[in-house]
Design goal:
The complex is a heterodimer of chains A (215) and B (388). In chain A, 35% of the residues lie in helices and 28% in strands. Chain A has 215 residues and is α/β, with parallel strands linked by helices. In chain A, the strands form two sheets. A ten-stranded mixed beta sheet of chain A has the order 6-5-4-7-8-3-9-10-11-12, with helices on both faces. Chain A has a two-stranded antiparallel ribbon with strand order 1-2. With 388 residues, chain B is of the alpha/beta class. Chain B folds into two domains: 208 residues, P-loop containing nucleotide triphosphate hydrolases (Rossmann fold, 3-Layer(aba) Sandwich); 156 residues, Rossmann fold. In chain B, the strands form two sheets. Chain B has a ten-stranded mixed beta sheet with strand order 4-3-2-5-6-1-7-8-9-10, sandwiched between helices. In chain B, strands 12-13-14-11-15-16-17 form a seven-stranded mixed beta sheet, sandwiched between helices. In chain B, β15, α10 and β16 form a beta-alpha-beta unit. Chain B is elongated. The chains are: A alpha/beta (215), B alpha/beta (388). The interface between A and B is medium-sized, with 34 and 36 residues. Bound molecules: guanosine-5'-diphosphate (GDP) and magnesium ion. The site of magnesium ion (MG) has 4 residues of chain B, from α8 and β13.
């Protein structure tokens, strides 16, 4: 199964988007999701850094409202904002709750006949701040298998400076594809790696929260 | 103490004091409601009940109970062990507070007190306690169990891919284990529970499909399987062949309305519906399909001219992405096409089972059912078969 992202033939259902802090991983992933959902994909955004309202606000600025959100922030900061049809809130400690809700959205897409689904998980690094790598690994093992068997595509952001080598190695086992982002001082670049694909580095910039890729 | 879950109430009667019951939950299934429902049922009975929360704040917990229509705060006999707030840096004014939820000795002290002062202790997520405090938790659990001579411990446990040691220890330490699983077919199409183990009564394995209703909680239901196919393919005969009890609303020999049968199969009770073959009934197919869990397509193997109609029926009923299997019926007749020939003519994908049958002689009919259930439940049920 393949999905075209920024003219790259991405050949993995589970892709880690890794780079240093502030390089633009979240914006990068949001733009990918925005592009696909605007073209008919079902979209789920799991957020551990911004509340559902902040994420929805971002998408709505670019005329997109039809996005499902799993908000792992509100409950952690003791907001009692309620759930809605498309927004579900769980504490970041509640991996079962996150897993159940992702599956619930997938089931809804499936039953409405939607087979093209894109998921963003932003970010794995936050989960790793609360729970040990073993626990997170077990959770991701179950999740990545489900995404694959559904045929969906998921992008997981990871802060590369926050984790030790063992943790990064463990994550690499779970994700067949990797998008690496780098900040070269005067420009930012990215490339895609998988067992069978290795693209050239390409430049990108972020203008007004939108991604622009140089050719 | 009560269980408060449909069917389990009948099968297990009650949880005797001194026993532990564990809800052993597939990681993708909404299972925390089981422990909550058991607790609420016992609050209503007037027992002193305490809920140990490790994954959400006491406020979120109360709201979660409310989603099901369970107003726990109206009960004086309700209290919370807060093993969450301190973890995320908040204060707490619950009756029981764990000052450092990562420290097993502190947790131990609070849990022991809670066991002494209550009839029922429910762990909201035993797996999260293990995730936070390590596998050592299970040694403590063993001692809590010993201490709870006069009370009951019920746990929700999410069965993540832990080591086999951890998983078997959890089961060993429980007097009863109820497995809560998902019916997988690309997505989770349904949920079921079944008794894996119980040491205070004899039960025959039995699995129950359920939905989580808000308000209401866990409700059991009977799954439907649809039998479809062209006119005269043998649908009615097939439904009767697999059913323990079947009725047909027949006129002039072939189906006008519905065939309906009940099948007892490996502990499940399944409702089997035969659909009418005539085109004028097509509109009801989608309705039936939307409630079913799977489809059996019956074709007359001697009549390739009916295959286009068969494909059309398949499309109408599997519209929602349901799994299906094909019964290549009337294999006893000369000129019957072999399953692989039918696969070619109908362009059926390789992974869809096509099984030769003679419905009139009940040949192959259970294999068809088997193949469908395997598609639906796969590994999941195979693992829970220890119950029979
Ligand atoms: N020889 C043979 N006849 C069958 C078989 N299954 C059904 N029939 C006959 O085919 C006819 C139509 O069967 P029925 O079940 O009413 O078909 P329906 O219209 O699909 O419900 C009846 O006369 C059955 O006895 C089979 O496996 N072999
Ligand atoms: Mg009939």
């Amino acid at each position: 199964m393949r999905i075209e992202i920024l003219n790259i033939d991405v050949d993995s259902n589970n892709v880690m988007v890794i780079g240093p802090p502030l390089v633009g991983k979240s914006i990068f992933v949001r733009n990918i999701v925005w592009e696909k959902v605007s073209n008919g994909f079902g979209g789920v955004y799991v957020t551990t850094k911004d509340t559902a309202e902040a994420v929805l606000d971002w998408f709505q600025r670019f005329n997109l409202s039809d996005i499902k959100i799993i908000d792992c922030v509100s409950k952690t900061i003791f907001s009692d904002a309620p759930d809605t049809e498309d927004i579900k809130r769980v504490s970041i400690m509640d991996l079962t709750g996150i897993s159940v809700r992702i599956n619930m959205f997938l089931e809804r897409f499936w039953k409405s006949g939607k087979r093209d689904v894109i998921i963003a998980f932003d970010s794995i690094s936050t989960v790793l701040m609360y729970l040990n790598p073993q626990t997170v690994f077990r959770f991701l093992h179950v999740l990545t298998n489900r995404i694959k068997s559904f045929g969906a595509f998921a992008f997981y952001t990871v802060d590369e400076d926050m984790h030790d080598e063992r943790t990064i190695a463990m994550l690499k086992q779970l994700f067949n594809g990797v998008i690496e982002l780098k900040d070269e001082g005067n420009r930012r670049i990215f490339r895609y790696l998988s067992p069978s694909i290795r693209t050239e580095w390409r430049g990108f910039s972020i203008v007004n929260d939108r991604l622009e890729v140089s050719s | 103490m009560k269980i408060g879950i449909p069917v389990l109430d009948e099968l297990l009667k009650e949880i005797p004091r001194g026993k532990t019951l564990t809800y052993y939950i597939d990681p993708e299934v909404e299972g925390d409601v089981f422990g909550m429902q058991t607790l609420y049922r016992n609050l209503e009975e007037g027992y002193r009940c305490v809920y140990v929360t490790s994954t959400m704040s006491p406020t979120s917990l109360r709201n979660r109970f409310k989603e099901f229509g369970w107003y726990v705060d109206e009960f004086e006999n309700f209290s919370v062990v807060d093993a969450y707030s301190a973890y995320v840096g908040a204060t707490s004014d619950e009756r029981y507070v764990v000052k450092d939820p990562t420290n097993l000795d502190e947790l131990d002290e609070v849990i022991r007190k809670a066991i002494d002062e209550n009839d029922l202790v429910v762990f909201g997520s035993l797996s999260t306690v293990i995730d936070i405090c390590g596998e050592e938790t299970l040694n403590y659990f063993e001692r809590w169990k010993e201490q709870a001579e006069d009370s009951v411990i019920v746990s929700n446990f999410t069965a993540w891919p832990y080591s086999e040691d951890v998983l078997s220890k959890v089961k060993e330490l429980s007097n009863a284990v109820v497995r809560i699983g998902g019916i997988h077919h690309r997505v989770i199409l349904g949920h079921y529970y079944g008794i894996l183990k119980v040491d205070w009564t004899q039960v025959k394995g039995r699995a129950v499909l359920f939905k989580v209703v808000k308000p209401g909680g866990v409700k059991a239901y009977i799954p439907k399987i649809l039998v479809t196919g062209p006119y005269n393919a043998g649908k009615s005969t097939f439904v009767h062949a697999i059913s323990n009890k079947a009725i047909s609303v027949d006129r002039l020999g072939t189906t006008v309305a519905l065939d309906h049968g009940k099948v007892e199969y490996k502990g499940f009770t399944i409702d089997v519906f035969g659909t009418p073959g005539q085109e004028r009934f097509d509109p009801i197919l989608k309705v039936l399909g939307s409630e079913a869990l799977g489809v059996i397509l019956v074709v007359d193997s001697t009549k390739p001219e009916t295959f286009p109609r068969a494909k059309q029926l398949l499309e109408k009923t599997t519209h929602f992405g349901l799994p299906y299997v094909i019964a290549a019926n009337k294999q006893d007749l000369p000129n019957a096409l072999k399953p692989e020939e039918i696969r070619k003519l109908m362009h059926i994908p390789e992974d869809v089972p096509i099984i030769p049958t003679v419905a009139t002689k009940k040949i192959g009919v259970y294999e068809v059912l088997d193949a469908l259930i395997k598609l639906l439940i796969g590994e999941g049920y195979a693992k829970s078969e220890g119950a029979t």
